[in-house]
């Protein structure tokens, strides 16, 4: 008890204080770190391949029920390619790594009512016991805590157009600078300033490579951006070797593995998309939308202004990234064993 501890001349630990115990009950404070599902824990224990997946794409990126269908299909693709999927989200204030199908459905139905959760939001969402959809930054944090090195998503955040004056730079980029997880994506959407995004990643010390036969940096809906990565890596084994080297050197920083959208699903009219994006950016400015709301706003506008064809491209590239990311995770687990 408290008295006995005091008599021994020690201060009772924070966790033992009655007030703290009450607060924990009331505010759903997790005991420590993240909660990893049984399937993911089992795979990690034997050094097996695991792929982390984010959840903002489920709640804010697509409408129900396509979001649930896509999430389930992406997990299936990961399994077909020999890896274990670990979707990350905050449920009832607990940071979870690995969701079952019922939990995925719960999240998909919550949709936009879930809190979009990047690094800065995590503590508040946990303290309040809320449902949080993790962005790339928060998913990287959870993945790293669980010791997962490969993470698959659609597109990463970046420097927004006009970011040189608004200072709207996604927390994804600083997270990539400080957390050693490889993020497999289709590059950066042209709703962002791709050139400045790559400059910022360079400053943050983030390795940026393209997957396949070209060092062109892809721009989500299209295979080109007019900018180059540091290199092109042609096989999952090369990517795994890069991740292994990053870990061996203890750099502590993350990397971007950019996978161009499959040719057949790439947007045929980049100029049309560009016009749509410019309209959406202007409308966002007019309505005074800023902070974490601007990315979902522009994505939604682009979706409706392209009559849904962007949704099909989005689903295609996420599945393709899941296939490539899983192959990389498999190659990495062979390399490490
Ligand atoms: N880019 C996309 N689709 C997305 C996102 C970005 O093409 O769904 C989401 C990701 O979860 C990413 C987040 O981490 O938006 C970045 O938000 P912000 O720009 O507010 O940092
Ligand atoms: Mn922002």
Automatic annotation (TrEMBL):
Transmembrane segments: none annotated. Keywords: Glycosidase, Hydrolase, Lyase, Manganese, Metal-binding. This is Carbohydrate kinase PfkB domain-containing protein. It comes from Polyrhizophydium stewartii. The chain holds residues 3 to 339 of 712 of the full protein.
